[in-house]
Automatic annotation (TrEMBL):
Assembly mode: The Tat system comprises two distinct complexes: a TatABC complex, containing multiple copies of TatA, TatB and TatC subunits, and a separate TatA complex, containing only TatA subunits. Substrates initially bind to the TatABC complex, which probably triggers association of the separate TatA complex to form the active translocon.
InterPro entries recorded: TatA/B/E, TatB
A GO molecular-function descriptor: protein transmembrane transporter activity
GO CC term, one of those recorded: TAT protein transport complex
Transmembrane residue ranges: none
Topology term for the membrane: Single-pass membrane protein
Sequence ranges of Low complexity compositional bias: 153-164
Protein known as: Sec-independent protein translocase protein TatB
Amino acid sequence: MIDIGLTKLALIGVVALVVVGPEKLPTVARMAGSLFGRAQRYINEVKSEVSREIELEELRKMQQDVQEAASDIEQSISRGMSDANKYVHAAWDDGLSSTPETYKVEQLAIKAKSFRRKKLARSSAVPAWYKQQSGQKSRVLSGAARVAKYRPSGQGKSSGSFFS
């Protein structure tokens, strides 16, 4: 804005007092203040309108980018679906004429047997004594079993009713 110091304001006040006169100076000062306020409000409105338009333009651009990305994704999905559909139809047509050799029953049984052997080796690789020593649970106790196991010996079994 305009850089106006105290000396410049005093000089403007003296010139206004001489030019306008002491009787009309308060009225002129009020009118000048109201005009200055109106000008500031108008400038602020213009600034806010410009910023709203810029934000709106950015939002429109963002919306267009999102729509383009969505259409690209839609096209890639439709291409993938059509390729998968062609592949399934080709496999179906080939499956009717001959059985593929990779899925024979004997080979599946061999794969299942090796899988079970590997799973058994993975799950039983850690000895039970090490699990107990390191704090790993070897079996799970229910809540009632834990209460019965860790109940102090001085307390007897409850009768099962609330009134004793």
